[in-house]
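Query structure, 169 tokens:
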């Protein structure tokens, strides 16, 4: 089975949008890099994940993809704190008691945490896909406007089960 890594923020749920809302509520200046970085380190991710919505049936879609037995599925997510790891693991385990979640410290590339050769990454952040491709993997952009930015694009996770370009790659 082929390894399939699915990003969390902006693919499974709208967590980043929620963090922007929280920052606005707290008067954090989003254009100030240091202030943002400090904010993300102390952010309460239980609060964030209590406010998110699931994007385009992502949970049912992941279930379908897992049940298809076509891919070995794991969540691959960038994190800024231990609190964020714990909250994300608890969130995913509520839906999937046995799905692997790999946390990647924000400072390093997702390509450094797992074997990328021929593995698929579904991610909404183009830079992650560029790095993935350079490291020998196959990147798919998740984007609600279906803008692939040079990559195959989907706006529902179960589309990878039916997209011939992806399946035959
Ligand atoms: Mg993302």
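Result returned for the query:
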């Amino acid at each position: 089975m082929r390894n399939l890594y699915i990003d969390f923020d902006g693919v499974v749920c709208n967590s980043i949008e929620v963090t922007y809302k929280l920052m606005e509520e707290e008067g954090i200046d989003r254009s100030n890099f240091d202030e943002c970085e400090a904010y993300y380190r102390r952010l309460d991710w239980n609060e964030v994940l209590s406010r998110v919505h699931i994007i385009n049936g992502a949970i049912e879609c992941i279930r379908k993809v897992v049940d298809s037995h076509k891919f070995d599925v794991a969540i691959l997510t960038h994190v800024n704190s231990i609190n964020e790891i714990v909250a994300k693991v608890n969130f995913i385990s509520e839906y999937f008691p046995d799905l692997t979640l790999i946390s990647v410290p924000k400072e390093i590339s997702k390509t450094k945490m797992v074997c990328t050769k021929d593995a698929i990454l579904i991610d909404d952040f183009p830079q992650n896909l560029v790095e993935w491709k350079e490291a020998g993997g196959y990147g798919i952009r998740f984007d609600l406007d279906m803008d692939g930015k040079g990559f195959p694009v989907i706006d529902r996770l179960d589309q990878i089960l039916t997209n011939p370009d992806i399946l035959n790659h």
